[in-house]
Amino acid sequence: MHHLTKDQARRIAVGAQLLDAFRPGDVVEVAEQLGAIKIDPTATIAPAEQTILWSRIGSAYEGSQLTKAVDLDHNLFEYDGAFRPISLLPLMLPSMREWPKRASTRAWLEANSTFRTEVLARLRGEGPLLATDIPDTAEVTVPPDGWYGSNQVVHMLDLLQRQGEVAVARREGRHRLWDLAERVYPQNLPEYELDEAERLRNERRLQAFGIAKQRSPWTPVGEAGESAVVEGMRQKYRVHPDALATLKQDDGGRVAFLSPYDGMLFDRPRLKELFEFEYVLEQFKPKPQRRYGYFSHPILMGDRFVGMLEAEVNRDRDTLTVEAVHEFLPFEAEEYEMVRAEIDNLAEWLGVGIRAW
């Protein structure tokens, strides 16, 4: 049983997410450690997948590096709204073959068995295809909601992706081209039984987060890693051995601006308990109810969240407009200079000037 202070737990979490002073070298290294790089088009500053990589790699990162890793080298693949390392695919396939568990999803697929067959046949004969290239012949429809429109092809493709039948072959801009998974995924991958694959996935999940509650629906890690308790916390944690080793390093930390869809922010209870940070994405709030702005980026300084960056790129004017830097507590002079320097780095990476607050 490891006994950790809150400071140590935070440092473990920050290091595991590659947000300490030791920057990774490339896109694949980031993906292998994090397990998933979220894809989202909201680009007040840059799309999530680009900001997530820049916040780790820094000014050496260019968007073409991600394209190369996905489309040319095939070191990453797209699944369920994120780019993932190909090394994870063998661990995901056993559970994909068992999906879906929910009765309503199974019923929809069964009611649309002819539609399913037609989609697969169209891809086999003509793929890769956009969803709009495939006729919607669904017998039973799902009403439009916040994620899906009325076109049932998109819904069917997403479900077939979860079953391992189809996959995203590549993108044209923000649009996905779909094909049969057997033509997209590598062949001769290692085979795992379901239980073993889940155990290994738990280990990879804990690797990405460093430390997680033993019983957490946000970050399920099972019995991966080693037992730990954190001062002031009643719940038991699991900690990754490699993350413990980083406690011997005193790197001083750095400033990082995090996309609202950054994996570091995913486990909201952990954020509150370890970092005393109650993060709320205000994107979907009415404007009068927003405190920090439509798509503000949390500011991490060392192992603490110190504020929110409210900024937006204007490509017509080639400027990064900084509306505000919301300080949770007033910055000291050195802290202000660190944040300002990172804003300068962000503008340089974006290739724009700065219109300061």
Automatic annotation (TrEMBL):
It comes from the Bacteria. This is Winged helix-turn-helix domain-containing protein. Pfam families: AlkZ-like (PF06224).
